[in-house]
Every structure is written in C-alpha cells, then in structure tokens.
Design goal:
Aspartate Aminotransferase, domain 2, 370 residues, 13 strands, 2 domains, three-stranded antiparallel sheet, 12 helices, seven-stranded mixed sheet, binds pyridoxal-5'-phosphate, alpha/beta, Aspartate Aminotransferase, domain 1
C-alpha cells in the first residue's frame, strides 16, 4: 500500500536502515566512494555465488550492459529480437547502429518463438537478443543450436530473470552474455543498477574496461568505452538486499499461489503456471483477459482496478514495434507479430511484491472476481 491507500504493482525491497547506516559509516571512513571499491568487489563476489555464475560485472543500470554487450561482441547489421519487452531491449540495438528485426512470440511463454528465428536470418544478421520475459526461461537450447548453425551471437536480456534456474543451473549462463537490471522495480534492486554475466575472465576484463571509458591502465584506452560504474553506496545497499532476496522471492511465491487458486477457472482469465524443473522468481504476475469470455475488455478491467486503487500495469503494451521509432521497420508489421499483438492487448500485470497483505490480495481479487 502507498500513502494514498493505493496498491501498487510493485514495492521496492529496502534494506534495514540501521544496517545500511553502519555500512555508510564504513564507506565514509574509507573515503572510497566509487571505482571498484571494496563493496563493489564484495557485491560482485556475492552475486556470483548467489546466482551460480562464474563472472559478473556490475553496471549503473540495466540498459548500459545491453548497449555494452553489443559493443563488446562487435555486433553489426541486423539483430533478431522480440517486440514484447521493455523498450530498452530494442533501444540498445538502435544505439549500436544496428537494425532490430522483430519476430513473433510463443504465447505459451511470452518469449520469442524459436521456430520463427531461421526465417528472419539474412546475410546481415549477426546476433539474437531474446528476453526471458517475466523471468520465464527462453528455450535456450534451441536458440543455441540455431545460433551455432548460422554463426550468430546470443545476448540475453535477463532483466527479469534474477535467480531463475533450470534444473539447478542458472539461466544467466545461457548465451554469449546475459544482462540484468537492478532497478528499484525489480526482484533484486540497488535503487538503479545492473550487471552483465559472462563465461570467462578475459571477457570480464574487457567488459570492465568498457564500462570505465575503455581504460586498461592509467594511460591506455583500448576501445570506445562508456561510464557505467556502480558506486560504493549502491553496492553496499545491494549486499544488504541480497541477504533478504530469498525471503522476498518466497513472499512473492505465496502471492502467486493465492492468485492462481483464486483465478483458476475464472472464465476469460488465464495466467502462467510454474514450469517443471524451473526455480522461478515470481517477478511478475501477468493475467490475460479474453474480453468475450470474461465479459469485459482488458482496458475496462484495468481502469476499473485503477479507479478502485489497484494499480496493475499493462506490461508490455504497446508493443515496442508500434512506437514511432520502430514502426517503419519491415519486421514491425502487425501481420508479422500477431501473437505478440494479442498478448499486448490482453495483459495486465497484477500487483506482485513482498509486501502485499492478505487484505490487499482480497481487494485485488474482489475486483477481478466480481
Ligand atoms: C528493466 C528492464 C530493462 C532496463 O533496466 P534499467 O535498469 O531500468 O535500465 C531492460 N530490459 C528489460 C526487459 C527490463 O525489464
């Protein structure tokens, strides 16, 4: 709940203020506030362990690792991606002077449909940028087979997939590189923040150069780098949040259980169930409204909820391919993307966070169940 008696779609996971103050005292005492300080190093080590990944590089948000991943792999030409995501995915391709090529999604997951990839490949294609939408794992095996066959790189936008595992293995180890967002609205946050996951020490070194203007030493610059360093204050904040993220994920899991029990069998409302062998993070709880069966359109339900103080969000509506920057692209046509369009037109993400009370859930569900 917020001060205005509204139930918001998310609520930031905040560290205990006393504990945070103690770490701030350490930072003040050290007089080292950014540039790979001790909290930065500690957070990278702690994240590698928690996420079960070999190497990670912290960033100042979740968009810059996307931009930097494309730079690092020297991606050019065309990049195959999904229109059903947050705009930053496509923007990162555009900012690299590459052409986004949209393909349709698999409605069973919301992720790109691997069966649509091959037909979109041209001699200019150099990479695939899929998204684990809502933290649901992409078919990484199929995508890898296709990428290997055509010599393409794969960069996963894993902004939603913090802590997601398939058969005990981190989803973040798939592809050439994966990126995370630690924005306030995500399962794990450092207020603003992000990271890139890579497979080897050489790549981490190069990424660390690139996020620090390309500096490889006091006087040597190895490439057109950018500034995307995470500071000590947010690294310390992240270390504290990491200690409570499992509890937050479990609280979200309980919310998902409650939603599913209440909504299963409601005519015209569908949602995703857990996938076998997957450790989910319950980052979002999207429902899909079939207007005819439910007797109300998605927007009618969305605005009814809003009038009654329940702020869902229409993630991801509108489709990225419909924004002015991208709608002129040959792949942006509605005929090419019918399933993504249908999902965008029917989705509402219900409030989903660690702080929802039982009465919050009653209030939310009463508006949907009628
Ligand atoms: C949040 C998000 C981003 C961007 O992350 P920021 O930390 O806000 O820059 C990128 N891609 C997806 C899919 C996201 O949800």
């Amino acid at each position: 709940m917020t001060g205005k008696n509204q139930i918001t779609v998310t609520s930031p996971l905040l560290p205990d203020l006393e504990e945070f103050n103690a770490l701030l005292r350490e930072i003040w005492d050290s007089q080292w506030i950014t540039n790979n300080g001790s909290f930065h190093k500690k957070l990278e080590a702690a994240l590698c362990e928690y996420l079960k990944v070999p190497y990670i590089s912290l960033f100042t948000n979740g968009t810059l690792p996307l931009l930097t991943a494309l730079q690092a792999l020297r991606i050019t030409g065309e990049v195959i991606t999904t229109p059903y995501s947050f705009v930053a995915t496509t923007h990162s391709i555009w900012w690299n002077n590459c052409k986004p090529v949209f393909i349709d999604i698999d409605p069973a997951t919301g992720n790109i449909d691997p069966d649509k990839i091959e037909a979109a490949i041209t001699p200019k294609t150099s990479a695939i940028m899929p998204v684990h939408v809502y933290g649901k794992p992409c078919d990484t095996q199929r995508i890898k087979e296709i990428a290997d066959k055509y010599g393409l790189k794969v960069i996963y936008d894993a902004a939603h997939a913090f802590g997601v595992e398939v058969n005990g293995e981190s989803i973040l180890n798939a592809g050439d590189l994966s990126t995370l967002s630690f924005h306030a609205t995500k399962v794990f946050n450092t207020i603003e923040g992000g990271a890139m996951v890579m497979h080897d020490a050489e790549t981490k070194k190069r990424i660390d150069y690139l996020k620090n203007f390309g500096f490889a030493g006091e006087t040597e610059v190895v490439g057109p780098g950018i500034n995307s360093k995470m500071d000590e204050v947010r690294s310390a904040y992240g270390l504290l949040n990491l200690q409570q993220v499992d509890a937050a994920i479990e609280a979200r899991h309980q919310v998902a259980i409650r939603y599913r029990e209440a909504l299963r069998g409601v005519s015209g409302i569908t949602f995703f169930d857990d996938m076998p062998g997957v450790r989910h993070n319950y980052s979002y709880f999207p429902i899909f409204v079939d207007a005819e069966e439910y007797g109300m359109t998605r927007d009618e339900l969305y605005f009814k909820m809003k009038r009654n103080g329940v702020l869902g969000r229409r993630y991801f509506y509108p489709l990225i391919s419909t924004f002015s920057t991208y709608r002129g692209l040959p792949s942006a046509t509605p005929e090419n993307l019918p399933k993504a369009q249908k999902m965008a037109d029917s989705v509402i993400c219900l409030p989903m966070h660690h702080n929802l009370s039982s009465s919050d859930l009653d209030q939310i569900l009463s508006l949907i169940l009628r």
